[in-house]
Protein 1
Amino acid sequence: MKKDIRRHKLFVYGTLKKKHRLNSLLVDEVFVGDYVTKDSCYGMSSYLDSFPMVYHSDVHNHQIIGELYEVTTLNYDQILAMEYNAGFIPIQVDIENAEHIDKPHRVMDKTYETALMFLIPDSNGIDKDVNYYQKQNSTIITKDNKTEWIHVR
């Protein structure tokens, strides 16, 4: 039987990132690098400081910082199931290598990757009630309109 070696691009911003508690699911996968979403249409909340939730936002309008992986079909399917069961949905997003963000270059020189990212489909008032979900020592850092979850356990 022929082994499936196809790889799928997965953009992760939370517990699947390096040094975070679920990164063991990606330890045998290809780490491409640090990336940021092209679009600035997201908000992020940390649910009781245990995992981040990204959602479309009219209030925050941030880019999301994360990591790009190329994962096997088997692992991709397992991560899809895990995220679906947690209430997240997959969307295709354009992302740019974080190394290129602050370097001066012409717009036409920008190259974007497309990858799968998970978000909460309905923010259910998260924009208005963000303090309910986050403890005082927030695990979310926002600088220059770019948001990153940095919690490490």
Protein 2
Amino acid sequence: MRSHHLRAAGGGGGVLEDLRTELQKVGDAIKGGRSNYNHTHHYSSIPHYNISYDGDNTYISDGGGDMYDSGNRTYVIHENWGTSWTTQSGTIYESEPNPYTQTTVGSALGNYSNISEFKVVAGGYGTISNPTGNSNHDTAGTLIMATTAGNYNSSNNMKIGFGHAGNLGADGSGTTTTRQLYNNQTVNGFTVHAWDISTYNASDPVVCNIYIFLGHPNWGTSFGSFSTYRNSQTDSNTRGVWSEGTQNNILAITALIAADYSNSQYSNRHSDSMLTPIIDDIIADIKAEFGY
């Protein structure tokens, strides 16, 4: 690690000054690991649904089985973001959907004046040989994206996280719930907060978005207070999780997790024990890239 990215820390050693300078390591980790970010990797007897990536690199059109009606648009939440939203596409709170082809670090998309302070990297959309072409989960891997604002703070209202928008195929049936999976626990040396927001029991493939917030002693991470949002209408993909308040070097990650496909059914919500190993795998891959 380059020394000019470190500052002195009490007790010797160093603390990363700005996580944005090392975000590419996260991108390399999730790009290399995305093929394993599903529950079947740990439970070989439980198959998962093979989501069709049939839109473009910013959204899924149907997904197969009427999973979506154009959804999974992924936005970086910044300090001008509101507490709820109903818009399904385009600009939301001056933020734009970010492409899953962004495998090298770039600025989050939007017209918010300080949007360039928020850096984004994704694991990829298509395959390595055809990165922009439509594919599917089992060929290309899980759709996953990460963001950080490093040591940037605009005010006490600073926000960092991910939001989603779009339409689901549920068409009003089923249920959407929010569940916390990790609450300030330590996993492989990282402090972890994580949630899933899922729509299920709609006779369509479960839509499971996970939201992970990581900190590390070597990053000098400080979290704000966390907020979640989901639209109660199950035909809506509007949902998200964010940290609000003065922060430092938070790494936020979101991923779309393929449904449990047991007995050719795909409408049952994942159990906690199916999702936490996926989060642990993501953390292990990031740990391997950073070396601590």
